[in-house]
């Protein structure tokens, strides 16, 4: 069995993309706006989980640069290595979000930007619920996805073969609400990554709060 067969599909894809992924999405104004939304509301020195940290930029870099304590998690060894080198002020860990132990109420905020799309719908629902429990009552959660009603669709993403599963915007919002989060704001955008094989993508950013106890 090939080495790639032992790894999660997302690890194979993002190991191959490396810094190309960061460069392709660097101009996303909606992502930057989401980070500003968090920064305006986080208390100084907050603890933040970056779930699906990629290369560490822009999320972990922006948040740690503002003085917050950031733990970045990614399933791709290449991404974790790049992130640790590029954002030394944050901590990074190689782990699959579906299996990562997450103590309850252990973070002031959680971010998960486009890190669910290669999971099944059941896995996405379970991960969002676990992320919601990992943030303290009253804490913040920022989520981003591609709001399409697709399941197990074979596609090419920046030249890499992927299997994509997602929800419509309404269904994803309902999933988030069922996880115990209140959606405070949302941002819809269409973004074309800076890559010759990229096509315009709809993006949905949800900005949420876990209900206080």
TrEMBL record:
InterPro entries: Methyltransf_25, Methyltransf_Superfamily, SAM-dependent_MTases_sf. One of its GO terms (molecular function) is methyltransferase activity. SUPFAM superfamilies: S-adenosyl-L-methionine-dependent methyltransferases. Residues 48-139 form the Methyltransferase domain. Keywords: Methyltransferase, Transferase. It comes from the Bacteria. The keyword Transferase applies. This is Methyltransferase domain-containing protein. It comes from Streptomyces albidocamelliae.
């Amino acid at each position: 069995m090939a080495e790639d067969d032992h790894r999660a599909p997302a690890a194979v894809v993002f190991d191959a993309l490396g810094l190309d992924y960061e460069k392709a999405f660097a101009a996303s104004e909606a992502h930057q706006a989401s980070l500003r939304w968090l920064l305006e509301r986080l208390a100084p020195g907050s603890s933040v989980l970056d779930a699906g940290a990629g290369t560490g930029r822009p999320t972990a870099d922006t948040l740690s640069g503002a003085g917050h304590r950031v733990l970045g998690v990614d399933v791709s060894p290449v991404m974790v290595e790049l992130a640790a080198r590029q954002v030394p002020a944050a901590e990074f860990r190689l782990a699959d979000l579906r299996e990562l132990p997450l103590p309850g109420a252990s973070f002031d905020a959680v971010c998960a930007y486009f890190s669910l799309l290669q999971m099944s719908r059941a896995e996405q629902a379970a991960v969002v619920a676990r992320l919601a429990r990992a943030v303290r009552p009253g804490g913040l959660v920022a989520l981003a996805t591609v709001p399409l009603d697709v399941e197990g669709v074979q596609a090419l993403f920046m030249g890499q073969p992927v299997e994509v599963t997602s929800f419509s915007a309404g269904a994803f919002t309902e999933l988030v609400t069922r996880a115990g989060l209140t959606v405070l704001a949302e941002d819809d955008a269409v973004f074309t990554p800076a890559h010759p094989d990229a096509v315009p993508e709809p993006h949905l950013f949800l900005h949420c709060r876990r209900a206080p106890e």
